[in-house]
């Protein structure tokens, strides 16, 4: 038996699948894949021992639409199609109600931990070096701008 949970990250949602076996989790993932809830990959959080946990990314609209499509398919396979022939909307209103109840059963949990697990240290130091040093004698001189010079205002050295 699998359990479906969701972690909301803004408009993107991580849909988590928890199961007793890896095969159960993968089958539930393909259930969502085949009904177009995702086109991304399955990310494993725990794949060594039970309970197995994996997740994929989707959004609210795609998740709801996939549950509606899956509910419609399941109702048709169960033989409910004939019961709704001739009625307005056919089997679709029934499938939408089932999909909505499935959607409401999904619990919101935080299962993707975003805390940093490691401390990163760097060795060494950074320092600035002047590869073209200014001669000390150049620092002792001062300059002023003389606009009255006949050559158009050049700098004049004062001694």
Task: Explain the overall architecture.
This protein starts with a strand and ends with a strand. The protein is elongated. It has helices at 22-34, 60-77, 92-105, 136-140, and strands spanning 3-9, 12-19, 43-46, 52-59, 107-108, 142-145, 155-158. A hairpin with a 5-residue loop joins strand 3 and strand 4. It has four helices and seven strands, in the order E-E-H-E-E-H-H-E-H-E-E. The model has no long low-confidence stretch (mean pLDDT 85). It has a domain at 3-108: Gyrase A, domain 2, CATH 3.30.1360. By secondary structure, the chain is of the alpha+beta class. It has a five-stranded mixed beta sheet. Strands 6-7 form a two-stranded antiparallel sheet. Helix 2 crosses helix 3.
Summarize the entry for a quick read.
With 159 residues, the protein is an alpha+beta fold. It is built from four helices and seven strands. The chain has a domain at 3-108: Gyrase A, domain 2 (2-Layer Sandwich), CATH 3.30.1360.
């Amino acid at each position: 038996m699998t359990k479906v949970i969701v972690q909301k990250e803004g408009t993107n949602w991580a849909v988590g699948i928890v199961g007793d076996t890896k095969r159960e989790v993968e089958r539930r993932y393909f259930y969502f894949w085949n009904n177009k809830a995702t086109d991304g990959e399955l990310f494993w959080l725990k794949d060594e021992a039970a309970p197995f946990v994996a997740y994929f990314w989707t959004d609210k609209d795609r998740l709801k639409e996939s549950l509606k499509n899956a509910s419609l398919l399941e109702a048709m396979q169960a033989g409910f199609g004939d019961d709704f022939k001739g009625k307005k909307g056919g089997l679709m209103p029934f499938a939408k109600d089932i999909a909505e109840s499935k959607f409401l059963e999904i619990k919101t949990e935080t299962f993707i931990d975003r805390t940093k697990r490691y401390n990163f240290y760097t060795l060494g130091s950074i320092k600035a070096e002047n590869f073209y040093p200014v001669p000390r004698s150049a620092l002792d001189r001062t300059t002023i701008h003389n606009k009255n010079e006949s050559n158009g205002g050049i700098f004049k050295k004062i001694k």
